Amino acid sequence: xxxxxxxxxxxSGSGKSTLVSELRKQVSSVEFAISWTxxxxxxxxxxxxxxxxxxxxxxxxxLSEGVFLEHAEVFxxxxxxxxxxxxxxxxxxxxxxxxxxxxxxxxxxxxxxxAVSIFVMPPNPRALRTRLRNRSRAEGxxxxxxxxxxxxxxxxxxxxYREYGYILVNDILDRAVAQLEAIVLxxxxxxNGEVIAYRSRRVLEVAAACLQTNSQERIKPVLExxxxxxxxxxxxxxxxxxxxxxxxxxxxxxxxxxTDDN
Length: 262
Prior knowledge:
With 262 residues, the protein is of the alpha/beta class. Helices cover 48% and strands 15% of the residues. The protein has a domain at 5-31 and 96-244: P-loop containing nucleotide triphosphate hydrolases (Rossmann fold).
């Protein structure tokens, strides 16, 4: 079996790591390329599991030696995927998933246009903000300025959705996982003639619905929510103001009452 290269990109906090983890539980022969990064570990992250952590100096040395298939600077930190990950997966006849941002994805597509590209969208800014805040709380650091910075970056990243072959909206996790699984199985079917063991017709239909060319109506509410469609494309969303208004509404609703969360 010839291994297929899958590129998955998404704004920070969109849940792509969870999607990939769930996919690998359900689909065999799928490898995950562990990226190198110069950022510090978060929470319970371990070297060699979520990322390979290194220094800027060592990263620059690896870059100069041509170690990386792609690399990018994101929020002041460097990230890169080692070419060896692809070579190892191909030698084993396995598919490889790259979890990379839009900068790195553009580099890989230029070198390997046969790669399957998938963009994961959050359903709306409010849901993304909640996920980012929850992640910050879990890491023991709540930084609203960082959350707002990532929300604005998310809008810029989503504008690149046309560069991807498939689009997923991660609003319901189980559905998004099923769609990602269908994409992988359908690509194996079309490229390698690999038989789909269960409900093959339905799997192919689910994957086809996720093609970017077939996703316009489904992603339209997301694009509108982030101000990307039509005249809104020139609008600079103030996520901080939106958050303050939301918090004010919540405070007025909860005023004088205890809740289960207190």
